[in-house]
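User: Good morning. I'm curious how 2-phosphoglycolic acid would be positioned relative to this chain. Could you predict the structure with it bound?
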Amino acid sequence: MTRSIKPLVAGNWKMNGLKADLAIAAEVARGYDAALKPAVDLAICPPASLLFTATAALIGSRIATGGQDCSTQGSGAFTGEISAAMLADAGASFCIVGHSERRTLHGETNATVKAKAEAAQKALLVPIVCVGETRVEREAGKALAVVKKQLRGSVPDGATAATLIVAYEPVWAIGTGLTPTAADVAEMHEAIRAELSRLLGKQTAAGVRLLYGGSVKPSNAAELMNVANVDGALVGGASLKAEEFLAIARACAI
Ligand code: PGA
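Assistant: Good morning! Here's the predicted structure, ligand included:
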């Protein structure tokens, strides 16, 4: 953790969730009690189809919502796309961009991710820019270099601590139950902070929330969240279970 930064736990529901699953969000809201609220911020990123209703259901809970992706474009003839302004209009405060599933399955380059992050910022959403190496890259000793290159290519120029979040999500840890060691996370998050210092200046970089994501569970959350420069979590699978998501939030609230 970084003492001066309030941690954020964001749930990425991915392509999961029908109306009935808003019960999960409601249960999270019930568990986000007076002890947790000052200690950790929460956000839920449901599928776009549920964004408006989820935001409405969470009014008064202080739990924010976010999109999972946005278009690089503002509006127009882009069938199937959703703009950052539309997400904001539906109530979102955040937008995940450059998730490895987008980079891998949809061929998103660093330049695309940067354009999406800029589009999000223009709509006053805070982009959660995802970076992370593959297993092959880690085994080849290239993890740090890969992530630094992703940052250089994906982080919007002139971002501030209030307009940028970075999530380190090793691709091999997503949905696999595998996690890096605390030492590896510490090394990577320190390197991310240092690279952000080069890109944005030391003072800005010092305030940017750096989330860890990839198989975060109640059983490993405390260890991961205790690592220096880890300012919260981006949670996939476990965010679909209210009790697990809340347990992760409690582990962050230290
Ligand atoms: P996971 O996913 O927690 O299910 O590993 C994390 C993510 O993809 O953001």
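Strands lie at 8-12, 41-45, 64-67, 94-97, 126-131, 165-168, 209-213, 232-235. The two ends are 9 Å apart (CA to CA).
Let me know if you'd like a different ligand tried.
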